[in-house]
Amino acid sequence: MEQNSFFLPHEGVKLVELAQFLGAELGNSAHADVIIRSVSPIARAREGDICYILSRRNRDELLSCEASAVICDKALAALVPPHIPVVISSNPHAAFAMAGGYLYPAALKPVTFSSGESEIAPSAIVDPTARLEKGVIVEPMAIIGPGAEIGEGTRIGAQSIIGPNVKIGRNGSIATGVSILCALIGNGVIIHNGVRIGQDGFGYAPGPRGMIKIVQIGRVIIQDNVEIGANTTIDRGAMDDTVIGEGTKIDNQVQVGHNVRIGRHCAIVSQVGLAGSTIVGDGVQIGGQVGLKGHITIGDGVQIAAKSGVMTDLAAGGRYGGIPARPLNEYLKDVAQLMAKSGARGKKGDKND
Fold this sequence. Notes:
Blueprint: E1 13-14, H1 15-22, E2 25-26, E3 35-36, E4 38-39, E5 49-52, H2 59-63, E6 69-72, E7 86-88, H3 92-103, E8 125-126, E9 131-132, E10 137-138, E11 143-144, E12 149-150, E13 155-156, E14 161-162, E15 167-168, E16 173-174, E17 179-180, E18 183-185, E19 190-191, E20 196-197, E21 204-207, E22 210-213, E23 220-222, E24 227-228, E25 233-234, E26 242-244, E27 249-250, E28 255-256, E29 261-262, E30 267-268, E31 273-274, E32 279-280, E33 285-286, E34 291-292, E35 297-298, E36 303-304, E37 309-310, E38 319-321, E39 326-327, H4 328-352
Parallel strand pairs: 4-5, 5-6, 6-7, 8-11, 9-12, 10-13, 11-14, 12-15, 13-16, 14-17, 15-18, 16-19, 17-20, 18-23, 19-24, 20-25, 23-26, 24-27, 25-28, 26-29, 27-30, 28-31, 29-32, 30-33, 31-34, 32-35, 33-36, 34-37, 36-38
Antiparallel strand pairs: 1-3, 2-7, 21-22, 38-39
């Protein structure tokens, strides 16, 4: 891919310095002064790029690789051609991710629209009762409501709305077109474009004249170092709080209903829907387009396959899939049996034609 103007390559770092940052080691100290400027997949790596491999399946791609370095496990180092420097890591995937952040720090947070490092844009509206610590940047046409508090080093993106009495911690990044109401947000939180936080949840009681709205008077609490993808919605609690645990990463277009409690260091992929009062443990991984019924509990460390429908509690540490979700090995057996039956019917039909 031709280098674009959105993310320019790094001015260059010595391979030994990058390896030290990654907590890795050089395969050959003679390569210490090799200069690295960018990251790349193996297939199109060029001089100045660093890439990584995870298995022997990359053997053929390595033969034509022109990278200036490859990150890999010690067991795979022999696969790398002798002319390419090797960086040895016990976790090459994580090391490569860290290298990308080192070389492209600006890409770790949403794009900004203000070149200043401590300013409030003239077109922004900041209520006089709002409290902003030093180093807060408020971009054009953003609105900060009465009683809001924003910590040092946080950036509020263009046209975003921070509602009354909302509290946002330090070194956060709120992208463009975000609305945050009735929320307490921790330090180092990244919120991408178009996210909606703190609107009322979906709650109604059937009555003789139709649906009667149930008031939603809870909050949203987002702990430190959470990242929330574009156009995700997180409803405030009805009478309790909606909580997103420390370090959890939520993809684009996820719906989090009222009173949902998500644990720490979870990964939730795009288009997942969590119905109200669902409880998700720590370290849970949820694949794309999974739907979770309300008022159920997902145990710590659970993994849920994409497009699953979760109707009941899931025990900690398990892997689940299907509709309804069940242990993954059972689901895969069911799919294999259905495919076998379908194939048998097809063959029988061919004979009759």
